[in-house]
Amino acid sequence: MLLNSYQNELIEAGCDEAGRGCLAGPVFAAAVILPPDFIPGMLTDSKKLSHKQRDVLRLIIEKEAIAWAVAEVDHLEIDKINILNASFLAMHRAIEKLSLKPQYLSIDGNRFKAYPEIPHACIVKGDGKYLNIAAASILAKTHRDEYMTKIAEEYPIYQWKKNKGYPTIDHRNAALKHGLSPYHRKTFTISQPQLALFSEIKG
């Protein structure tokens, strides 16, 4: 069973991102402060849930959280500052947007650029250990999926409604055949050797 938060003495926001490994679109991040008596239900790491389950949980989290916020860093910024820094920046933007300033941050992963004046802990696979990080993973994922589904209407050849910008075989093939869209991250290389390697991994 997941714990509510990493520590209980200070007001804590869980933070996570979505879209870091994608070839196209922004990276999204969310920050969530849950009430101490939050009832988790089926809440867990977003990757372990179905699309429908995530959408249901998103509504519950946005209704019951003490505070929540979602922010993004677009593909142009990603190309300028790299995806790792973009992930940190997206989290900072989400934290900044919170209606209640947290006193502590629990971050999914093993690296983070410290947010001014707020201590933090980096927790590997934190979205499977703490409810506030799991909630952040749900919001980041669902808000990003919604965005990718919307821009997929402009460029249906890449099948973003299905792959959400991740490097699937169909997505890579479409990019190699038709070239890159304005939403693609130009610093992310799409090449035949990578495609062959990805095919081996998937196979």
UniProtKB/TrEMBL annotation:
It catalyses: Endonucleolytic cleavage to 5'-phosphomonoester. It is an enzyme of class 3 (hydrolase). Its cofactor is Mn(2+); Mg(2+). Keywords: Cytoplasm, Endonuclease, Hydrolase, Manganese, Metal-binding, Nuclease. GO terms for cellular component: cytoplasm; ribonuclease H2 complex. InterPro entries: RNase_HII (IPR022898), RNase_HII/HIII (IPR001352), RNase_HII/HIII_dom (IPR024567), RNaseH-like_sf (IPR012337), RNaseH_sf (IPR036397). A divalent metal cation binds at residues 16-17, 108. It is found in: Cytoplasm. Its EC number is 3.1.26.4. Pfam families: RNase_HII. GO terms for biological process: DNA replication, removal of RNA primer; mismatch repair. Manganese or magnesium. Binds 1 divalent metal ion per monomer in the absence of substrate. May bind a second metal ion after substrate binding. Its main location: cytoplasm. GO terms for molecular function: manganese ion binding; RNA binding; RNA-DNA hybrid ribonuclease activity. Endonuclease that specifically degrades the RNA of RNA-DNA hybrids. Belongs to the RNase HII family. NCBIfam families: PRK00015.1-3. This is Ribonuclease HII.
